[in-house]
Specification:
The structure is a single chain. The protein is mainly alpha-helical. The chain has one domain. It is 52% helix and 0% strand. The termini are far apart. The model has no long low-confidence stretch (mean pLDDT 96).
Length: 64
């Protein structure tokens, strides 16, 4: 699937997490979760680091 198709699914998965686990420091753990449990959500093509892409996708959904 394309990144544009996966973005809403990634955000939906992110928002399932408890609110206190949705900070910027939690993105790395979330990336690990996706890698292990939902690799389909990371199946988009990326020219760079998928972790950085994930940070970009979640930028408007991270608790300060």
């Amino acid at each position: 699937m394309k990144r544009e198709e996966l973005e809403p699914l990634i955000v939906k998965e992110w928002l399932k997490r408890p609110a206190d686990q949705r900070g910027e420091k939690d993105i790395l753990a979330f990336h690990g979760h996706l890698s292990q449990s939902r690799p389909d959500l990371l199946s988009f093509r990326a020219s760079g680091d998928k972790y950085q892409v994930l940070k970009s996708i979640l930028r408007n959904h991270v608790k300060a």
